[in-house]
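for the record, two folds in this file. i put them one after another cuz i was lazy. first one right below, seq on top, structure tokens after. the second one comes after a little note so u can tell where it starts
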Amino acid sequence: MKVLIQQLRGDRVIWLVVFFLSVFSLLAVYSSTGTLAYKYQQGNTEYYLLKHLSILILGLLLMYGAHLIDYRYYSRISQLLLYASVPLLIITYFTGTELNEARRWITLPVINLSFQTSDLAKLALIMFLARVLSKKQQIIYDFKNAFLPVILPVLIICVLIAPANLSTSLMLFATSILIMFIGRVRLMHIAATIGIMITALSLMLLLIMMTPDKGRVGTWKSRIEGYMNDNQEPYQVTQSKIAIAKGGLLGKGPGNSHQRNFLPHPYSDFIYAIIIEEYGLLGGAFVLFLYLLLFFRTIKIMVKSPNAFGSLLAVGLGISLTIQAIINMAVAVNLVPVTGQTLPLVSMGGTSLFFTSIGVGIILSVSRYNEECKKVGDKVKPNLLAKK
């Protein structure tokens, strides 16, 4: 164990957060997939546990590998990934695998592996924003030469994601705005962008409410109406509230969830409700604390980073993970409409967990570089963000 710990570079607190979230993930997934096992695996309750364990281990290996790579290489990698994301999103929209009236997945030939192209695009865009903003610091207030090269990729990626996954598109846009704010983009430009976005979103919501209940429009409409009207509350939200109420302060204990038999997707979208039912409000608060601690550590990494790219890369990925986690937990307690967002590093999943692991690995890579610079007293380009 000591030898293993010595191999882990970067922020040890983040590694500890990942460990605790992984433990919660295994316990909650094993508990919440019982019904699924009896329905599809003839009662083999260990099947989904072992499957999730293998995915989790592979994700941790990807995290470890990503943290060993000098984060400065991710600047060039972000370009390649962003250029690949645009055609992949277009292909997914027209020919992707359809589920629940949405095409979010694309299946790779030969290996027959499906993944959400929006996960790749989200990671690529955040990395690319960090690259562009860091290179434009000297002219960051220039609209044509600085702001347009930043906002155009954001709009293109978010628009391509929106038809199949509106919640992910809005979250990515909000994350991008925060990264631009930290990257010293002129507030007037940011405010104008937010104003245009709010206007466009309001018009879109108006059209949704006036459009017949077909396809994704019907899904969006039902979620909005269910959130605004208690009499039309979605079934899964009601079951989630029941699970949280039954959990109380200390919970019913590991594996003793009752609502897992009634709650749709208790192993992914509503896994937080299962955690509270089994581990109580204290367990739920501890999970929330872990994500906030992860975000706090990324801010600390940002402050210590000797250059702008490392700062923006770490905090951008940290913001993305934290927002997704908070949205998932907010859905479980009915603070926001149902979105279908998973709980990062906890929910059962496949490639989404891989991309999340890579994102955390990149944050750790920035932290590792900071530590190495501190040890050798390396002189690097000044971090202009520190002079904000």
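(here's the note) second protein begins now
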Amino acid sequence: MKSFRISGLVRSVDSVRRQLADSRTLQQRADAIAQVDRTLNQVDAILAEHRATPRHLPPPSQRAYRFLMDLRKNPTLPVGDGSSTPAATPPERTRWRGLRSTLERNLERLATAESEAQIDKTHASIAATSGQLEQDFHRLNLTPADVSPETRDFRAWLALLSEKPNLLACIAARKLANSILNAAAQKTGLWTMPLHIHFRPMRGLYRIHNTRTHSIAAMPTPMLAFDQTGFEAIRDLMFSRTPQSKQQLHAQMLAEPYQNLQAELTALAGPIERAAGAFHDLNLSFLRVNADYFNHQMPKPNLTWSRMMTGRKFGHHDSIRDTVLLSATLDRPDVPIFVVDFVMYHELLHKKLGLTWFAGRRYVHTPEFNAAERLFKFYAQAEAWLTRLASER
């Protein structure tokens, strides 16, 4: 039998994990365990109907099913002690209709605004939308966890550019970027001129595409802090792909102007830390690793569990956003603390040692990194555990 999906299973497990992480009473934990039983009963009924077993599910669903089974076997876990930031679990996220379209309209206005009247009109639109959004947050008593990541990003963008000096800085950056990127875009013959620059909430380094009347080059909002060198680096990456282009751009993104603006956007969005897990707490893991291997000198990054139970990649360090993410696959009762600490140590080494560039390529697992990683006290045992977890289906 071919594998088939059970819609919502992985999402349900993420919800249970957050409920357990946020449990402060026995009743809250009992409610979470009751949800575990309901979900397992539904999944088992679907499997029986199709004459299937959990092994017919896709790997992410298999890991989710195994997590639920672990909880059913071990329902008497201690309730949380409040030492970690709770993970909010609102029943339904609040949405704003038209927020994205409003953002898109203002991005185009910012891309073409020249006169003082155009700039004032754009600023008034952004400020009004930002003000209404903040009023809604206050009126509905919302926290950042009550809205989607996209809405948090839009909120931060609107709040930033509702301040007139920031909007003027954005327009100045757009003009500088245009002066550097337009000629390179036109030279390729692939893009409809003129080129409009959008500084927007987004993942990735850039996006460029054609419309009927022009082309749009989108880049992350903090790039409006770039100077000429920064825009020359992204120009080279967009249009010529020189060996050093990505290295140069990455250096610009790690520089103080970009990082300061990124930090301001994070604060405006309302950061959410999901460090508390159902079985393991990333805050406690960081404290142990920082004490044992970094002499308490490692600045604390943002810590969060992934929503997905990944199969092979168990951690990630985002140097631009200074965030350490660990896979929810590790948040199981049978996974020893030293395995979680090893992945934490691995990612903090990335934070400490950074990247090594050679011939335009970046290397993170250098000989220096590998030697430092082997200093972990339970290195061999932890590697064996991760190999076992990676082999599970």
